[in-house]
Amino acid sequence: xxxxxxxxxxxxxxxxxxxxxxxxxxxxxxxxxxxxxxxxxxxxxxxxxxxxxxxxxxxxxxxxxxxxxxxxxxxxxxxxxxxxxxxxxxxxxxxxxxxxxxxxxxxxxxxxxxxxxxxxxxxxxxxxxxxxxxxxxxxxxxxxxxxxxxxxxxxxxxxxxxxxxxxxxxxxxxxxxxxxxxxxxxxxxxxxxxxxxxxxxxxxxxxxxxxxxxxxxxxxxxxxxxxxxxxxxxxxxxxxxxxxxxxxxxxxxxxxxxxxxxxxxxxxxxxxxxxxxxxxxxxxxxxxxxxxxx
Length: 294
Prior knowledge:
two-stranded parallel sheet, Farnesyl Diphosphate Synthase, mainly alpha, 2 strands
């Protein structure tokens, strides 16, 4: 391993240690080489997202993302890099045979966030969620280890990413509105007589609550489907998968109980809740169950 790659893994571990994420604390359930791979993948995703969400002018952000994408493309094609994070990502992609397409799909997704976002239908949201979430999940599978001989793994893997993305959307709905991003499909708003141009305030009103509850049920059913992925994962992968999906499911339940809360603050889990979910994921007890929504 080159000195630059080693520097990249060290830097990635620092980024993960400083992150406040629903993902990172469960990386430690993996073997050291897989943990390093997850650190590198997370650091790549984090930097890509930060470039898209920065306060720079749009043209400058687009330029930075193009430069970042170009540096990754060159490194993955064997032309090398001077960026330690890119070097660590490239080593991870090669070590675990991650398809390059997944990396560039994520970059396409965050680049799309530079412009005002809105989706007409769930089909549109599903396509976007694949880019920014499911592509990352599919990359993770290659690090964790999974049975790729049965292509039936693909549906729950895709559904898992989409369910997590919907949960993120609900949790961040107020903040995204300030950025002119409306991720909840327009058809869902209009079905309830809601105007996309109105201020997002009257959560006491039935249509608002119905909208959020509807999206929660949709995400719940996708999580229910995603649980089928467990049987295709190697044992260490099942632990980290249960840890990740368990946290998102816990957040979604909090949103469902009190939709108005997402306008007051960002929904998060307490340290105790996180520790409890981690322990349950590692021990596999109690079994994670997510019922199908009625």
